[in-house]
Amino acid sequence: MAEEESGQLRPMPDDWKRALAVVAHPDDMEYGVSGAIARWTDEGREVTYLLATRGEAGIDGMRPEEAAQVREREQLASAAAVGVERVEFLDHRDGVIEYGLRLRRDIAAAIRRHRPELVVTVNHRDNWPGGWLNMADHRHTGQAALDAVRDAGNRWVFQELLAEGLEPWQGVRWVAVAASPLSTHAVDITATFERAVESLLCHRAYLEGLGQTEEDVRRFLREGAERSGRRFGGVLATEFELLPM
To answer: What is one GO biological process annotated to this record (predicted)?
Structure first.
């Protein structure tokens, strides 16, 4: 087992005010990260969500046109439960997100608009902790977010953004990768764990489609938070791979 996987986790930096969370789907933040988001917003930090899709391909028994509307509503409620007021959707196609210039440009534009110091994104690596295979939407969105941080700071990349009034932003200091197999840092979510559960339960139609109950949700989040906490002083925790920019 790599040292990063087995060693103790360090506290996340706290000398920042604005974060942008970039994920592929509604529910991606809620499966393990929203407890950290709740703590940050409670501390007065500003967090914005940016979703590549509306999750329209995520419910087998519901047509994509309907699912997009349902899942958007659920995501807005879920974000509100942890103090996030701004949620933006890029309308890339769920299930077939392509890594490329369009996705990088869209994320870079959002970084320039919101001027975060911290970017949070989904695991871009091939596997989840434990070895399970990651899916393409997560990999492509995470990798594009990493590359878009640099794109956002370069005046001569995506020059059309200048015409939209979006000046370069070089103020991103870190990217925090959620659910990475190479996690290095963590956030104590003991006080916000119940809010994390509430935020995932807001995805009611999605959970029903998966056949998951409130008990399933609570057990999944609790087990993950306890597992992370064993490397972080025994508290309930959310872990990240922190990449300095």
So the answer is: glycoside metabolic process
Number of domains into which the chain is organized: 1
**Which domain does 126 fall in, by range?**
3-244
Per-residue pLDDT of 10-42, as tens digits, reads: 999 999 999 999 999 999 999 999 999 999 999
- What lies within 8 Å, CB to CB, of 161 at 6+ separation is 105, 108, 109, 112
Q: Is the pLDDT of residue 5 over 50?
A: no
pTM (2 d.p.): 0.96
Half-sphere exposure of 235 (CA within 13 A, CB side): 19
CA distances from 215 to 50, 169, 211, 220 (A): 28, 43, 11, 9
pLDDT score for 83: 98
Q: Supply the CATH number for residue 197's domain.
A: 3.40.50.10320
